[in-house]
Design a protein that fits this description.
The protein has seven helices and four strands; from the N terminus they run ββαααααββαα. Among the domains are: 1-53, no CATH class; 186-220, Double Stranded RNA Binding Domain, CATH 3.30.160. It is rod-shaped and about 135 Å long. It has helices at 18-33, 58-62, 66-72, 75-87, 104-182, 199-209, 211-219, and strands spanning 3-4, 7-8, 187-188, 195-196. Helix 4 (75-87) packs across helix 5. The chain has 220 residues and is mainly alpha-helical. One of its GO terms (biological process) is heart development. One of its GO terms (cellular component) is cytoplasm. It comes from Pan troglodytes.
Length: 220
């Protein structure tokens, strides 16, 4: 249901015409001006009961079979009549036979029921708005979660690559440190710039990498 100046009013005009709806909105705005500032504060939107200005549609109500509505759970019929039932004015209604007014206790019961329905409509709108807000937050959170998962997957791959590179460099540094500590005890290859810790490694290297050079060197 729509709100005008934070006060609940339906957009559809009643049998009295659109001027009544405008007058009701003006009355609601005037009463809001007299409301204390604390009434509009807090998480809930400001709420105020609108005046009852609509006439009772007795012909339409007479056509409703209440037992049938209850048995069939006919919510559509309730929706079609909820506005007239909630916002109709009963104080001026008279009995067509004796011209007596509505019993005060019965009138009080009906008015309390009207106020209850109006507040439930207000609560329904507020909760629906909150639900839409939370659904949008959930959608954005889901998008953020998907992006975070992709980023974590990418970073995990980068970390794996860096670990492998770190391991390779650590092994290289360890080998170089051993060679530095050995100083003159390493064996330099005569065909390239590589050096080895012992003669066996050097011979194996020459046989694998420098077979032709070694053969030519032997003939000389």
């Amino acid at each position: 249901m729509p709100f005008q100046k934070h006060v609940y009013y339906p957009l559809t005009s009643g049998p009295e015409g659109p001027d009544v709806a405008v007058a009701a909105a003006a009355a609601g705005a005037a009463s809001m001006a007299c409301a204390p500032p604390s009434a509009a504060s807090g998480p809930l939107p400001f709420f105020q009961f609108r005046p009852r200005l609509e006439s009772v549609d007795w012909r339409r109500l007479s056509a409703i079979d209440v037992d049938k509505v209850a048995g069939a759970v006919d919510v559509l019929t309730l929706q079609e009549n909820i506005m007239n039932i909630t916002f109709c004015k009963l104080e001026d209604e008279k009995c067509p036979h004796c011209q007596s007014g509505v019993d005060p206790v019965l009138l009080k019961l009906i008015r309390l029921a009207q106020f209850t329905i109006e507040y439930l409509l207000h609560s329904q709108e507020f909760l629906t708005s909150q639900l839409h807000t939370l659904e949008e937050r959930l959608r954005l959170s889901h998008c953020d979660s998907e992006q975070s998962k992709k980023l974590l997957t990418k970073q995990a791959g980068e970390i794996k690559t860096l670990k492998e590179e770190c391991k390779r460099r650590k092994k290289m540094i360890s080998t170089q440190q051993l060679m530095i500590e050995a100083k003159a005890n390493y064996y330099q290859c005569h065909f390239c710039d590589k050096a080895f810790m012992n003669q066996a490694f050097l011979q194996s290297h020459i046989q694998r990498r420098h077979t032709e050079e070694n053969s030519g060197f032997g003939h000389l």
